[in-house]
UniProtKB/TrEMBL annotation, chain B:
<keyword id="KW-0472">Membrane</keyword>
<dbReference type="InterPro" id="IPR051605">
    <property type="entry name" value="CstA"/>
</dbReference>
<feature type="transmembrane region" description="Helical">
    <location>
        <begin position="270"/>
        <end position="288"/>
    </location>
</feature>
<dbReference type="GO" id="GO:0009267">
    <property type="term" value="P:cellular response to starvation"/>
</dbReference>
<feature type="transmembrane region" description="Helical">
    <location>
        <begin position="476"/>
        <end position="501"/>
    </location>
</feature>
<feature type="domain" description="CstA N-terminal">
    <location>
        <begin position="2"/>
        <end position="364"/>
    </location>
</feature>
<feature type="transmembrane region" description="Helical">
    <location>
        <begin position="404"/>
        <end position="422"/>
    </location>
</feature>
<feature type="domain" description="CstA N-terminal">
    <location>
        <begin position="379"/>
        <end position="525"/>
    </location>
</feature>
<feature type="transmembrane region" description="Helical">
    <location>
        <begin position="443"/>
        <end position="464"/>
    </location>
</feature>
<feature type="transmembrane region" description="Helical">
    <location>
        <begin position="508"/>
        <end position="532"/>
    </location>
</feature>
<feature type="transmembrane region" description="Helical">
    <location>
        <begin position="544"/>
        <end position="564"/>
    </location>
</feature>
<keyword id="KW-1133">Transmembrane helix</keyword>
<feature type="transmembrane region" description="Helical">
    <location>
        <begin position="224"/>
        <end position="249"/>
    </location>
</feature>
<feature type="transmembrane region" description="Helical">
    <location>
        <begin position="162"/>
        <end position="180"/>
    </location>
</feature>
<dbReference type="GO" id="GO:0005886">
    <property type="term" value="C:plasma membrane"/>
</dbReference>
<feature type="transmembrane region" description="Helical">
    <location>
        <begin position="300"/>
        <end position="318"/>
    </location>
</feature>
<protein>
    <submittedName>
        <fullName>Carbon starvation protein A</fullName>
    </submittedName>
</protein>
């Protein structure tokens, strides 16, 4: 009984500690994601980039993420006529 | 009156304040709605907007706002006697800090989790936002200058704390590395780091040659240093330069590499510190030797300076930045705001309270107290050292040897101060960059340019003003400036909440009264210091402090005028509660 309480307390404390860290990691990942999207996007409007060969195949997987991205960037509607997410 | 009774009565008032006053605020003024969809749910993105358990959020909120400031301010303010300091901490926490922290959290939650700066733009206008940025800029500049001086002072007073503090840097880097790269848990590594630090602290308290005592190396306090300065001044100069180089590096590294791991270690230290102090108080029940009021303190009047000296621990604008910047985006239910905001402020009050008690129970007799606290300058310069000694005396009641306890307590205080320094230099860099973008000077938005400006400006502020104790001692003249800048920020936040409540057609006296009180004290203190002390005709002329004081005074007047005009305006358009 007592041991459970202590375990709970430790778990709680761990969570308090890891909160800002988890946030930071998530932010870094998101930035990476944004960069990736930018590459694909640049390929779409015809700016040459090194990964251009693979990009069209990824379009179906990207469409939802692209939607989240342009909402995050503060655009209500999709900025591209080519991508019809909304 | 014994110390335990004072602590018990104060804590009891805190509990009553939370139980009844915050309940009244939650139900009658802010009218929290358990069914309201908070920004954490509405904009959930897994990064900034994450619904978080209220206890976890409170823990995070408390460890973000509690630092060295609520220890230092009260340790200086007992100069006027312990009664005014205790009363201000208790009533300030209940009626000002609690309302302010709670209110900023609620107003931010009701406005998509936007920060106070953005809200100022929305409720008052474009000029308010720029003014807001400038006030924060001054605030962080003051923090940098004050804390650099404070750390240097502690290093010189307690040379045994140097090594454990510096050990913390590689330890933090190690934690950052394993947590980030290996994705391990952080509790165990950070506890190991803490153990290593305290082990080093114990060893260096016992072993003479591990104490890095610059003054001793130069041949004692009366020896000559470099550039024709005395040994103590030289030591100050060297430490401040080393610290500035350190913060430059620390604030340009990624957050997870050094700053966050230090925060993990510090939150353990906060718990250890509070635990040791309150337990020590219970076990030793020390008599209070400091006078209840100090009629001999007539060089600087307690009114209004007491209310400026204790900023953190009674009300602090910095909390509004934490409330509206991060906590509001993670609030799970709107009704949790009462616990996170109000109880967070109470936590800070508890820290300020034990700081006062540690100082007033230290001295064997009243005469010793008066000898140490002989003038306001002496109180400012020695306040923190006195706190460390007082805290180690409380810790001695738990069987910890006094010199070891003194080292550990000074390590705790320096760690807090150093983390605050990192964070505030980083903040200053962001603000300089933002102002650079705002005023079309893109070159200063570059990381290293902005950091250089921040570090050089802070160093200049520490090193240039001449204090009575020679070089580097101009630092403690800055403490009142830090207090006023902090109170101004709180004043703006309270003004915003007041305008918001007024437009909602609710009772806004709960925020208006603390706001008037704080702005009045700030303005009064600045008039006293700027006009009568720091001006070129004043008793203690200092152009640099005069400029900063005058700027703060101008800001205070501006806020008051804005407040009058926006509260008198007939713009009573009801605002949408969910905007």
């Amino acid at each position: 009984m007592m041991l459970d309480k202590v375990k709970q307390l430790i778990a709680f404390y761990e969570e308090v500690l890891s909160m800002p860290h988890r946030q930071e990691i998530a932010r870094e990942l998101r930035n990476e994601d944004d960069l990736f999207l930018l590459l694909l996007y640049s390929e779409m409007i015809g700016i040459p980039n090194p990964v251009y060969y693979y990009t069209l195949e990824l379009y179906p997987y990207m469409i939802e993420k692209f939607h989240d991205w342009h909402l995050r960037m503060g655009m209500e509607k999709s900025p591209m006529t080519g991508i019809r997410c909304c | 009156m014994n110390a335990i009774a004072i602590a018990a009565i104060s804590l009891f008032i805190f509990v009553i304040g939370y139980r009844f006053y915050s309940k009244f605020l939650a139900e009658k003024i802010f009218r929290l709605d358990p069914n309201y969809v908070t920004p954490a749910h509405r904009f959930k993105d897994g990064v900034d907007f994450v619904p978080t358990n209220r206890f976890v959020l409170w823990g995070h909120h408390f460890t973000s706002v509690a630092g060295a400031a609520p220890i230092l301010g009260p340790a200086i303010a007992v100069y006027w006697g312990w009664l005014p300091a205790i009363i201000w901490v208790v009533l300030g926490t209940v009626f000002a800090a609690g309302v302010h922290d709670f209110g900023t959290l609620v107003i931010s939650v009701r406005n998509k989790g936007q920060s106070i700066g953005t809200l100022a733009n929305k409720l008052i206008g474009q000029r308010a936002k720029i003014l807001f940025l400038f006030i924060i800029l001054i605030l962080v500049l003051m923090v940098n200058a004050v804390f650099a001086w404070v750390i240097a002072n502690l290093f010189i007073t307690f040379p045994s704390s140097v090594l454990p503090v510096f050990i913390q840097i590689p330890l933090a880097l190690w934690i950052g590395h394993i947590v980030y790269k290996k994705n391990s848990k952080m509790l165990v590594p950070s506890l190991i780091a803490l153990a290593i630090m305290y082990f080093v602290a114990i060893i260096s308290a016992k072993v003479g040659f591990l104490q890095i005592d610059l003054v001793k190396y130069m041949g004692g306090a009366d020896a000559a240093g470099i550039f024709g300065l005395g040994a103590v001044s030289t030591a100050f100069f060297i430490w401040i330069i080393i610290l500035m180089v350190y913060v430059y590096i620390a604030s340009t590294l990624p957050v997870w590499r050094l700053l966050q791991p230090r925060d993990f270690i510090n939150s353990h230290q906060l718990i250890v510190g509070l635990g040791i102090l309150y337990l020590g108080l219970l076990f030793t029940n020390p008599p209070i030797t400091a006078p209840m009021t100090n009629p001999g303190a007539d060089d600087v009047s307690w009114f209004p300076l007491l209310f400026i000296t204790i900023a953190c621990g009674a009300i602090s604008g910095f909390h509004g930045l934490v409330s509206s910047g991060t906590s509001s985006k993670q609030l799970n239910k709107e009704t949790d705001a009462r616990f996170v905001g109000y109880a967070g402020a109470v936590g800070e009050g508890v820290l300020a309270l034990i700081s006062i008690i540690a100082v007033i129970t230290l001295f064997p007799t009243k005469e010793d107290f008066l000898a140490t606290y002989s003038s306001f300058g002496a109180a400012s310069a020695g306040g923190l050292g006195t706190f460390v000694k007082g805290a180690s005396q409380l810790a001695a009641g738990l069987g910890i040897p006094v010199e070891v306890a003194a080292t550990i307590v000074s390590v705790i205080v320096v760690s807090f101060a150093a983390t605050t320094l990192d964070t505030s230099v980083r903040l200053m860099r962001y603000i300089i960059a933002e102002l650079g973008v705002e005023y079309k000077v893109p070159v200063i938005a570059k990381t290293h340019v902005a950091t250089t400006i921040a570090v050089v400006a802070s160093s200049a502020l520490v090193l240039i003003p001449e204090g009575p104790n020679g070089f580097g001692s101009g630092g403690f003249l800055l403490w009142p400036l830090f207090g006023t800048a902090n109170q101004l920020l709180a004043g703006i936040s309270l003004l915003l909440i007041t305008i918001w409540l007024k437009r909602l057609g609710r009772n806004y006296l709960v925020t208006l009264i603390p706001m008037i009180f704080i702005l009045f004290m700030t303005l009064w203190a600045m008039i006293q210091q700027v006009v009568f002390q720091w001006a070129f005709w004043g008793s203690n002329s200092s152009p640099l402090l005069f400029i900063f004081g005058a700027i703060i005074m101008g800001f205070a007047i501006w806020i008051i005028l804005t407040a009058i005009s926006s509260l008198r305006s007939t713009d009573n358009t009801k605002i949408d509660l969910d905007d």
